[in-house]
Amino acid sequence: AGQRVCRGGTQQPCYKIVYFHDAWRRVSYEEADNACRADRGQLLSVETAAEQRLIEKFIQSLLASDGDFWIGLRRKKEEVDNSTECQNLYSWSDGSTSKFRNWYVDEPSCGSEICVVMYHQPSAPAGVGGPYMFQWNDDRCNMKN
């Protein structure tokens, strides 16, 4: 399932947004990655601020409740303590080289969190960096999103 959205109707790129209201249906990073590949796609690579805004509009149109979205950004090394070094170790799963990032103010936190989600927590009280809406957060890859 999922909502397929293409720019200008059928032009490339096309996006398929999948959101599970039922938490028991949510999946890990690897499961999400495998599902995208099986559908002849890949997890989202956000290349520009304009593309970030476009994805935000798509997600808003779902009227989704709390539940973060996996994106195709992942850290190469498993454990890194130095957050300055850590930020440079993320790469897109499709091999693209965009340096655009939309981290939440205190992210990435590194450590054992190596896969990346786009926040979607409309009911959460705002934190230091404002509402937890559409910024990126490194998370444990086995989390269900």
UniProtKB/TrEMBL annotation:
A Pfam entry, by short name: Lectin_C
Q: What is its main location?
A: membrane
Q: Which residues form the C-type lectin domain?
A: 10-145
Task: Spell out the molecular function terms from Gene Ontology.
Answer: carbohydrate binding; hyaluronic acid binding
- Membrane topology of the entry: Single-pass type I membrane protein
Cellular component aspect of the GO annotation: membrane
Quote the subcellular location field of this record. Answer: Membrane
Q: Answer yes or no on keyword Acetylation.
A: no
What InterPro entries does the entry give? C-type_lectin-like, C-type_lectin-like/link_sf, C-type_lectin_domain, CTDL_fold
Keyword Transmembrane helix appears in the UniProt entry: yes
Keyword terms, alphabetized: Lectin, Membrane, Signal, Transmembrane, Transmembrane helix
Q: Which domain of life is it from?
A: Eukaryota
Task: List the transmembrane segments.
Answer: none
Annotated protein name in UniProt:
LAYN protein
